[in-house]
Amino acid sequence: MIRWLLLLLGGALLGGIVHLATVMALPRTATQDAYSRLTNSAPVNSVTALPLPTPDTAVMPFMDPAFVSAVCRYDLTGGPLNLRVPVGPAYTSVSFYTRFDVAYYAINDRAAGRRIIELDLMTTEQHNEMPEQEDVTAADRLIVESPTPTGLIAIRTLAPEPGLVPAARAALAGARCERQDLAQAPGRQ
Amino acid sequence: MRLLLGSLFALVVAALVGLGSTYFALSRGAAFGALSIGSWTAWPRSGTIDADPYARATIARTGQLPMALGDGVSFSAKADDSGRTLDGRCDVIVSGITPAARFWTLTLYNVNGELVANSVGRYGFTSEEIVRRADGSFAVEVGPRAGPGNWLPTGGIERYELVLRFYDTAIGVATRASREVPMPAVKTRRCP
Q1: What digits encode the pLDDT tens for the residues B157-191?
Q2: Scanning A43, A66, B71, B126, which has its CA 20 to 30 A from the CA of B153?
Q3: pTM
Q4: Is B65 in contact with A55 (Cβ distance < 8 A)?
């Protein structure tokens, strides 16, 4: 009897380890996470507009139907990325996610303080390698460090009422996400 | 033989306990740092790089992109203020005022996080389109039948979830109590 109780206890302890291991391993093994869902439809390092969420067209669960959104699936191994997002009619935000869909940074139009949200996205190593001189001239540019070389940028603009959807969509159509060395950044030689 | 049987027993217990608790924790949406106000719950920390392993696993499992804290905070309610599970066949009233935010949206999802099809194509309200009372408060009628005022159709589904998102708000990881965050009440009024 006592033997079986001990085995039960041992099994339960081992179960605790199994629990922790499965929880930790899940993000790495998930095949239906947001990043994987977008792998086929969103080419790398470019902005892809997502359909307005409806019961039939939502790309992922829990999307806000009041928002027109676009994504940029990025890969920084080739170099830093330059992102430019024109501000929409009401509220525009840009959220950054790691490869495993963890949000690490977000900025909205008011925090950006301009009619266009512009920033550079790079890995920590790329930021460190940036020449100091450039860092100074780039003082007015926002630099975001990505913890992972790949990830996802979600660009979202609120259409406060259905009539403003075209305006929100038009604003997002001007969003650009491209390799810094390929982008024609104004005021830079 | 006894050793084999014994270790087999222990391994079966381990698998049941381990996988069962993982499934249970993730289907309940367990994560640390929950902010509960009335029937509404938010996980502000899940929208940051400090998201705990449970939050990360839940995000991966559902396939959603969590709301980044710099963007806003998302509260969800699966039951009314008296603890009764939200039923799409009943009339539920969401009324009151909301905490300070530049914009907010109220959206209805089924248990899988999908929008619910309905005849008028309405899946939620934004703070701009809602009809308010003179004092600035509002009431949204969530139910299967059209009603006057702000009607949010449920499509008659059995269970649903309301999500109230605040954009550009001061609510965050440091928010503690309901005094600074007045959330609307959720009440089931009539059930067939």
Answers
A1: 999 999 999 999 988 877 776 567 889 999 999 88
A2: B71
A3: 0.89
A4: no
